[in-house]
Amino acid sequence: MSEFAIEAHALTKAFGKARAVDGVDLAVRTGGVYAILGPNGAGKTTTVRMLSTLLPPDGGTARVLGHDVVTEADRVRGRISLTGQFASLDQDLTGRENLVLLGRLFGFRGREAHDRADELLAVFELTDAANRPVKTYSGGMRRRVDIAAGLVVQPDLMFLDEPTTGLDPRSRNQVWQIVRALVAAGTTVLLTTQYLDEADQLADRIAVIDHGRVIAEGTSGELQGVRRLGRAAPAAHRPGRPRPGPGPARRPARRGRPPRRRTGDLDRASLRRGRRAGVRRAGRAVPRRRRDR
């Protein structure tokens, strides 16, 4: 078995003049969870569609489970599963009927297809709703049965494209438990998400993507360490919050005078050193440090 489930180098994809993916490199190890984190329009879904053979790349190369996604697309499809952002089930059929239908398409015989459907419904806690049309399911229930549909045949690699977007906290936690169970059963998972906490909770490694490029990659701890040190790894945008803009411009220092600094940012020892060096105060009181109570 290869060390890497996915190896991508310089993947690019353009739609007209807009570059959705602009030179993405990925190395996803076998047997864990890898998260692609980024805001809407960052290129996450387009990257997944190329890796799952639904879109041919304009440039670069990608191998999934040892097979080229362009020249060996059929072999890739035989070993992966993809759950997209929107339910791919027949809304008028019941949950059980959808799973039985997929089982028959995958080659299960009648009794085998029903047994596999019942097994998945039980695992995903949908037995009580098995005979109801999918259109009557809640958002979380639809998401669970959609993921179950991708597991009729156990894949070696599963792509989950924003699996919890729009779900309530309880349904999100249920999906997280499903992802952990998949990995425990031996499936490698690549998921895309807008949520920093989701990537932090689930992923062994995280690629932060924006404007079609990977701008940071590593474990959650490594990325937080890079951020603390102030290196070039911008924080991921959190949905629902405005993007941070540039800070206020500093006034230029007058000629012949040292630049002024805010005394509120300095402690007393720094001020004493400044006075000895001839630096004058900016006229603001230094706030006293409060003792820890």
What would you note in describing this structure?
This protein has 293 residues and is of the alpha/beta class. It has two domains: 1-79 and 155-241, P-loop containing nucleotide triphosphate hydrolases (Rossmann fold); 92-153, no CATH class. It is built from nine helices and ten strands. The chain has helices at residues 44-51, 73-77, 95-105, 110-123, 139-149, 169-184, 196-202, 220-229, 268-276, and strands spanning 4-15, 18-29, 33-37, 59-64, 67-68, 80-83, 157-161, 188-193, 205-210, 213-218. The strands form two sheets. Strands 6-7-8-3-9-10 form a six-stranded mixed β-sheet, sandwiched between helices. Strands 2-1-4-5 form a four-stranded antiparallel β-sheet. Helix 6 (169-184) links the parallel strand 7 and strand 8 (188-193). Helix 3 packs across helix 4 (110-123) and helix 5 (139-149) packs parallel to helix 6. It is globular and about 50 Å long.
Helix and strand layout, with pairings?
Blueprint: E1 4-15, E2 18-29, E3 33-37, H1 44-51, E4 59-64, E5 67-68, H2 73-77, E6 80-83, H3 95-105, H4 110-123, H5 139-149, E7 157-161, H6 169-184, E8 188-193, H7 196-202, E9 205-210, E10 213-218, H8 220-229, H9 268-276
Parallel strand pairs: 3-8, 3-9, 6-7, 7-8
Antiparallel strand pairs: 1-2, 1-4, 4-5, 9-10
Helix pairs in contact: 3-4, 5-6
Quick recap:
The protein has nine helices and ten strands.
Counting H and I runs of at least 4 residues, what is the number of helices? 9
Number of domains: 2
SS class: alpha/beta
Instruction: Write the CATH fold name of the largest domain.
Output: Rossmann fold
Count the E strands: 10
Which strand-content bin applies to the residues?
A: 15-25%
**Overall form:** globular
Mean pLDDT across the residues is 82
Work out the helicity level.
25-40%
* Top-tier CATH class of the largest domain: Alpha Beta
> What is the second-level CATH architecture of the largest domain?
3-Layer(aba) Sandwich
